[in-house]
Amino acid sequence: MQLSENVEEYLEFLYMVEEKGRKKARINEVAEGLGISPPSAVQMLQKMERDGLVKYEVRVGVALTSKGRNLARNVIRNHRLAELLLKDILGINVDEEAVCALEHHISGKIANAVCTRLNHPRKCPHGNDIPLGSCCK
Ligand SMILES: [Zn+2]
Ligand SMILES: [Zn+2]
Question: Ligand 1 centroid to 76 CA: how many Å?
Fold first, then answer.
């Protein structure tokens, strides 16, 4: 499934909310986190719900479905491996702008190559967990 970069940002955000131990995110929180207005967040989340990626309940919040979570895991994995690619392989500063540009274009094959080259690291430079990939056996 080909996801738009925009959808990937939402998935990533919701995954990180789960990492903090919460299953649901509030709309205002999503809007603030992504720097958009709450009405545009609602519009996007409704579209993502039609695609089966999230479950959105008015006044309750939004949660990933298992399909959404699997895709989100991959985006997060690519993001964190992109950070390590910059920092540990290329030796350049991990700035968010460069990482965000990269993460949407890094293929599973490149992610696995970075992962293998660095001996399957478990943490990104910020200390966050990197989800396992097919190379990490
Ligand atoms: Zn990081
Ligand atoms: Zn690996």
Answer: 9
